[in-house]
């Protein structure tokens, strides 16, 4: 079992959900007690966008959709900024905002950052919902090279 003082770099994976806020609060509090570095990571999956255009015959102008990826990046930046303001007082926090497969990106950044602990929340889905969406927490736990702390939703 790891000595608690060996947790020098804590990676906290977040999205904009209540379980993530609970995980972030727990992760930042633990980092302060252990005098550990903190990195926040948010991953957006690649957006699926339909091409929406107007009908020039009917006189309907084309609808210009904002760049969905830019909107996601801006929302992620605001999310991390809010979490640092809310929980990270007195800490220097590294931030990663990525796009891709959530599990893969968490595992990859954990290796590159040399994280000694990964913290994430769980939505607690079971049954058919779990079958459809899978569990990021479960997949990260299976593939991570460092300990993973899952903060429950309850």
From TrEMBL:
Superkingdom, natural source: Bacteria
Principal subcellular localization: cytoplasm
CDD domains: USP-like
Annotated compartments: Cytoplasm
Keywords: Cytoplasm
UniProt domain UspA: residue ranges: 7-152
Pfam family, one: Usp
Record family assignment: Belongs to the universal stress protein A family.
Protein name: Universal stress protein
């Amino acid at each position: 079992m790891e000595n608690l003082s060996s947790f020098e770099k804590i990676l906290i994976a977040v999205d904009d959900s209540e379980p993530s806020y609970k995980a972030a609060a727990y992760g930042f509090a633990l980092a302060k007690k252990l005098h550990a570095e903190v990195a926040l990571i948010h991953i957006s999956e690649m957006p699926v966008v339909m091409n929406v255009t107007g009908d020039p015959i009917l006189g309907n102008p084309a609808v210009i959709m904002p760049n969905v990826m830019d909107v996601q990046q801006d929302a992620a930046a605001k999310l991390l900024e809010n979490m640092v303001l809310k929980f990270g007082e007195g800490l220097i926090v590294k931030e990663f905002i990525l796009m891709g497969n959530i599990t893969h990106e968490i595992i990859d950044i954990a290796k590159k950052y040399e994280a000694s602990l990964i913290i994430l929340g769980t939505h607690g889905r079971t049954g058919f919902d779990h079958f459809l969406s899978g569990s990021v927490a479960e997949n990260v736990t299976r593939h991570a090279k460092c300990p993973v702390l899952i903060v429950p939703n309850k």
